[in-house]
Amino acid sequence: DTEVTQTPKHLVMGMTNKKSLKCEQHMGHRAMYWYKQKAKKPPELMFVYSYEKLSINESVPSRFSPECPNSSLLNLHLHALQPEDSALYLCASRQVEGDQPQHFGDGTRLSIL
Amino acid sequence: KQEVTQIPAALSVPEGENLVLNCSFTDSAIYNLQWFRQDPGKGLTSLLLIQSSQREQTSGRLNASLDKSSGRSTLYIAASQPGDSATYLCAVLNYGQNFVFGPGTRLSVLP
To answer: B97 and A43: CB-CB below 8 Å?
Structure first.
């Protein structure tokens, strides 16, 4: 079991749908991350929330929008996605102080029809 | 721009062998380097983290070394087992607080 919980585990949606991916951690970590991973490729960083400050990978399209309601939760809102957005979406968290490791969730497998 | 590479891309060994996975990075200005394991369709499991001031870390049959000046890290797996079969990824944390991953090494340990 992972200490970072992602829901749902699987999501199938049409290109006109609006959905959200959720990530939760209760380890008191102050940095949370969203990654996109295509098959047989490494994870690519999409967004970082560190001390409630958002950093964005400029290559990420605007149809992805993160939201951080509080320090334990990080959502990823999806709207008007394209088939090439089908991937495994991974959330991670990390305690910034003390040079601590990243902890990953099990991911959400997203399929766009 | 930081670039991370891993050699070999894939490796198949018989059970019991000792093996070495390699990770190289182009910018030595890093906070730390982390090794992960990923099973198919799953998230990443942290194996070892080496801080920039450290030379190596050990956990069970795993030993990771870091030579920051030359931009290299190795993951040594002793007495490999079929359960070690997975993709192994290294990631460096840059001073910009962004992680950059290598492409991974796909390991198969044959019984």
So the answer is: no
